[in-house]
Amino acid sequence: MSILVRNATRRFGDFTALDDVSVEIPSGSLTALLGPSGSGKSTLLRVIAGLERPDGGSVEIDGRDATRLPPQRRGVGFVFQHYAAFKHMTVRENVAFGLKVARRPKAEIKARVSELLELVQLPGLADRYPAQLSGGQRQRMALARSLAVQPSVLLLDEPFGALDARVRKELRAWLRHLHDEVHVTTVFVTHDQEEAMEVADRIVVMNHGRVEQVGGPRDLYEHPANAFVMGFVGPVTRLGEFFVRPHDVEVRRQPNGTTSEAMVERLVHLGFEVRAELVLHDGQHVWAQLSREDAEELELAQGQIVFVRPSRTRQFAEVPAG
Amino acid sequence: MPTERTGRLGLRFLALGYLAMILLVPVGAVIWRAFGDGIAPVWQAVTTPDALHAFWLTLLIAGIAVPLNTVFGIACAVVLVRQRFHGRRVLDAVIDLPFAISPVVIGLALILVYGQAGWLGSWLAERGIQVIFSLPGMVLATVFVSLPYVVREVAPVLREVGTDQEEAAWTLGASPLRSFLRVTLPAIRWGVAYGVVLTTARALGEFGAVTIVSGRLAGQTETLTLYVENRFEAFDLTGAYAASLTLALLALLVLLAMTRLQRKEGR
Q1: Which residues in chain A have their CB less than 8 angstroms from residue B183's CB?
Q2: How far apart are CA A92 and CA A51, in angstroms?
Q3: What DSSP designation does A60 have?
Q4: Which residue in chain A has the smallest CA separation from B175?
Q5: At A251, which helix (H) or strand (E)?
Q6: ipTM for the assembly
Q7: What are B215-252's pLDDT values in tens digits?
Q8: Which residue is closest to A151 within chain B, CA to CA?
Q9: A273-280 and A285-291 as β-strands: parallel, antiparallel, unpaired?
Q10: Smallest CA–CA separation between A266 and chain B, in Å?
């Protein structure tokens, strides 16, 4: 079900968490709210859920004005960074909570809970308590719990933020698959651009309580609207007035008229990738990302003089924050 | 390492020795003295009409004051932890007033307000309600002195539990009341239980404020602590020690009840 946020504003004292934010989230999409901490992404998610009341603006869920609806009546599932597991209830009781509140018949609750535990791959753990589960398992339980009431939208607030790197990677792929199976409109908050790129089909980039750009992962990477987005969704370096992706810095042994002279200051070998840190003759630092083969072919070495030119560039009015 | 071992044993000896001197020896002495002449005189002493009355009155007062302070304490902790408003810090400080003020002063203050000549007292007296020198005043005094315990035990637990679980319950359709009863209350139950135990112990043992407001009418407004002092002053040592023993046993029961609850819960 689609979500439409119009001109949402939220202040906490002097701090403006949301500054006139308007976003449309299409039905069935998997959208990431991406931004640095304090960018307002979590506040926006909580405003959609009804856990935070905006000072101004409106929220529409599935074409219905939800601005004044309490979270109980918005039909949203919410997953918290720290799981928010009901610690005194078993996994089964946690997942059944929403169904019990809705007074569903016992047989239906039982069937639905087993089905959900199957879906989140926790079927054998129904009688455990959250304290007996790993972080990843707790978060999957929390997900099952929020899906139990068949929400029209699923909201996840940094869902993998408290997990270690390996489990986080696993769960990302798993969330993607789950979404392909369940098709519920999903919005998740993250500050990790790689996570957003990997999982989402749409990304809303936020900064200072505003939306900087909305688009697909590739779209944002290839056509960033401004320096902030370019810097936030991928690596960036500067060549004169231009912002360049380091893999778009062309390194040559001979000048060709459009190149500038540079000295290799340092070479960093990162497996497949080689990172060359260069200094231009005017003292400006640039870095280039090359494949190992290219670096070997150029016989790059520290102190060597090379010639560089950007193969694709962007020019923005402002300077990137990062 | 032997020195480390000695140090550890020394610390243990110090802790246990301190506990023995301060707690166990005096309490043991009370039991010893009470049973000095065997069980019969003790039984006789605790079953006199005045002693029995004091026993039931003590239970009645605790039975009213503890639930009142539990409900108030939880509500107050929620307000202190979850709400931001002007005067929150003042409220926070005021809660501790009963800790800071001597119970005798509290008793006098209650007489000023609820006594025959007091502001509220005269108004209530016209309507036939006597507060001072009767049960309502004693309950008030007990509520007053045991007020902070539940708040102080629950507030930190509530802060630690956070709002995530509650908010999760809301998004699952549970009303605020239901979320509180089914999710928050179970999460803070140990804070509440400990607060209740402390409140009960304080309510059972209250002496100063209750002395002032009760008028100490034997068989009417005499609680167990007052009865102990009454017997002591009347040179009825067996009676005093026997009643003390009853008080100690009540306190012990409360403690045992909590330990049992905790063990049942401890997986």
Answers
A1: 86
A2: 25
A3: E
A4: A72
A5: strand A249-252
A6: 0.87
A7: 888 888 999 999 999 999 999 888 898 899 899 889 88
A8: B172
A9: antiparallel
A10: 48
